[in-house]
Design a protein that fits this description.
Strand order of the largest sheet: 5-4-3-2-1-8-7-6
Order of helices and strands: HEHEEEEHEEE
Strand content: 25-35%
Number of helices: 3
CATH class of the largest domain: Mainly Beta
Number of domains: 2
Shape: elongated
Structural class: alpha+beta
CATH architecture of the largest domain: Beta Barrel
Radius of gyration: 22 Å
Largest sheet: 8 strands, antiparallel
Distance between the termini: 65 Å
Helix content: 25-40%
């Protein structure tokens, strides 16, 4: 009787350990996938702008803030004003950009900033592949970024 009781107890305990391990494994995998987005991203392709123009303007977005309630408060820079926004990135590849604003400096060339601000608000999907981030809208327009910490 004692042997049966110990055997059943060991079996239940083993089941609990395996179940906990599966939950931790899945949580770790989701965290790794989501953590790829928490970087500073340099804009490399957008509309008719050349890559060298974007590099010269130091065009980038920063998503390094800690997410709160599934939303990341980010910043952007397109050569003149500091921009800020809230992004909500879903596991299904959807993104919602809201609360876009900026400082109010007047600079000689603000075309990139104005074009980016208008297009950025309309982005609806995202994908991260390695060190590359792509944002797209429903019309097929894209913004492509590379991770700033990638050599």
């Amino acid at each position: 009787m004692k042997t049966i009781f110990v055997s059943v107890l060991c079996l239940l305990f083993s089941g609990m350990l395996l179940n906990c391990n599966a939950v931790n494994s899945n949580t770790s995998q989701n965290t790794d996938q989501n953590s790829q987005i928490y970087r500073e991203w340099m804009l490399t392709s957008f509309g008719s702008y050349s890559k060298s123009d974007l590099i010269m303007k130091n065009a980038k977005i920063d998503l390094t803030e800690k997410a709160e309630d599934g939303k990341i408060k980010g910043t952007a820079f397109m050569g003149c004003n500091s921009m800020f926004f809230t992004s909500e990135l879903k596991n299904d590849g959807k993104v919602k950009i809201s609360d876009v604003g900026s400082t109010l400096k007047a600079c000689q060339d603000m075309k990139l900033e104005m074009d980016f601000s208008t297009a950025f608000r309309n982005m609806t999907t995202y994908s991260v592949k390695g060190h590359f981030l792509t944002l797209s809208d429903d019309s097929g327009n894209k913004m492509e970024f590379i991770a700033a910490d990638w050599d």
